[in-house]
Amino acid sequence: MESWLVKGVFDPLEFIGTLYFGTLSWYTIVCRLLMMLGIWKILEKSGIKGWWALIPWARDYQLARCAGREPEGRVLSVLNFVISMVDTFGFATLVALHRDAEAQAANAVIMADVLTLTLGLASVIYQIRVYSGLCEVYGVRKRWLWAWILDPTSAIVPLIWGFGKKFQPAWQVEDIRAEMARLASRGSADVMDEGLTVNLEERSATEFFQKKVLLRDIHMSIPQGHMVLLLGGSGAGKTTYLNAINGYEKADAKVLLNGSDMYTQYKKMQYEVGFVPQAEMMRGKDTVLHTLLDAAKLRLPQDVTAAQRRERVNEVMDIFGLQPVKNNLVEKLSGGQKKRLSISMEFISNPSLFILDEPDSGLDGVMARELFEQLRKITDTGKIVIVITHTPDRVIDLFDDVIVLAKDSARTGRLAFYGSIDEARAFFGRERMEQIVKSVNRKEEGGDGLADDFVMKYAEVQHG
After folding, report:
1. N or C: which end of the chain has fewer CB within 10 A?
2. Domains, the chain, ranges and CATH?
């Protein structure tokens, strides 16, 4: 069928048919309708409204939710949407408006076909991921996924799975969300007059036209003078959690530091929290001294005098061993010196809570050890220090406690453990911290896929 864009004649019926079915051939229309009918029933079996099957691209995402492959479903939906747009409009849109530009329009159509082919290959890859997940949920062999992908049988599989009584999903999308929500929603951490108390009910955002819960039910009390390791795989919510407790991204939570509310008293509390991101925020052409003086102007209250700021800067340089290089340019510093300077910038305000995101990134074992020993000394002055590091085992003896976050089956960050290092080893049955992270990571991420088990176990231990 020649594109209406190339012909330069707009036919509304042809446009809708191409957009919705891909073609107006009766065979294709019937196959698509049967496929939608089968998907309607599959969605209902998984606890999702069946009418999503009628919406192009959205049904791909909903099927991915049924398969436990929500992130892959988002990508697949976008890919299929773009493919549909290219097929419908093509690159010939502009040139086809000119009746005397047929050659240019033909070239643009060829370009559109090449783009469609490239996107189509990517779509097939993500279809395989989604349909493999569906095969696992329905407990059938992976060869079924090829029947989903191939056009002659793509309508047959959803009909068989949707209407066949023996084809039942292992779990329902909404049921598992409700179960995971129930398990850890009881109780809260006791409020401490001195220390950090976190009672986080939920941290959510709107993603892909629906509410996405990023974190849920995280309750803990961290005493002063404790150095805490924060563990969790990619996407478990470590950074989101840190942003929630330091007030940068508010959650449905009550966060108290030494009795003061982090949210309602944020202007006062901003000087009590130091946050060192992984990326270094320093100008290479400034000296160490000027860098810290600038940081002091930003981090110290406005009523602090210039003399007091300089005195505090000298104290911090003494603590972190930067006095010998105070007149050196930042760009001339070694990797370890840059890390110490980055930490010093946040430590200027003498915070009660000190948070560091991978402070040892790019450092060798010896330099990393020296850095963490310095953090240990800071902790021993009565501070709370929370650290994310991807190589925890080389410095684990310096930590008091460990927080383990994990993604549950609903892809929500949950608290899988909080306690001492020895208690963590006993709880997970693993000696090394990296093994603990592997145990809660999903199988497709190279982990053991035990996140739900440990989230449930911890909730039962906490609440009886």
Report:
1. C
2. 4-170 (no CATH), 178-272+351-463 (3.40.50.300)
